[in-house]
Specification:
Length: 150
């Protein structure tokens, strides 16, 4: 599926009456993009990232991550996307799955506050390019309003 088609589909999900919209978006991303091995949304509460909806072959033990810790906590601190081509080369990396080779974390920002993030692990090295960054930023912007209202 191309990014534009996926963006439109996610817009449709978010405009629908689906009571578990965010989970449906996560399921959609994980199933439609082959390199997106594990997809999760973390929500910021009291300076800690809490794991929300996720989809992938395994659960992670990192269900709570303090801001500033790991790649997730770094992105939540700076509000900047982290695109890590080789996780084993990044000393901040908190390992969740032995199969993970690369990771992207895109902050979800609502009215200038970092309220959460999209976290995607890939079993392939260097899985995420500028198009993924741009696409996921758009999805993060679309999710912001819904996550703020959760
Ligand atoms: N690898 C992340 C932790 C979350 S798991 O990938 C689901 C990190 O370094 O913050």
């Amino acid at each position: 599926m191309d990014y534009k088609e996926a963006t439109n589909k996610i817009k449709e999900i978010l405009d629908s009456q689906d009571e578990n919209k965010i989970q449906t978006v996560v399921d959609f991303l994980q199933s439609q993009f082959q390199t997106y091995s594990w997809v999760g949304i973390y929500i910021v509460k009291n300076d800690v990232l809490h794991l929300g909806p996720w989809n992938g072959p395994h659960a992670t033990e990192h269900t709570k991550i303090p801001i500033g810790h790991g790649i997730c906590g770094s992105a939540a601190k700076t509000g900047k996307t982290e695109n890590i081509a080789e996780v084993c080369a990044d000393e901040r990396y908190l390992s969740c799955f032995i199969s993970t080779r690369s990771e992207i974390v895109v902050p979800i920002i609502y009215k200038e506050s970092i309220i959460g993030e999209i976290d995607i692990d890939s079993d392939q090295p260097n899985a995420f390019n500028h198009s993924d960054e741009h696409f996921l930023k758009e999805i993060a912007d679309m999710l912001a309003k819904h996550i703020h209202n959760m």
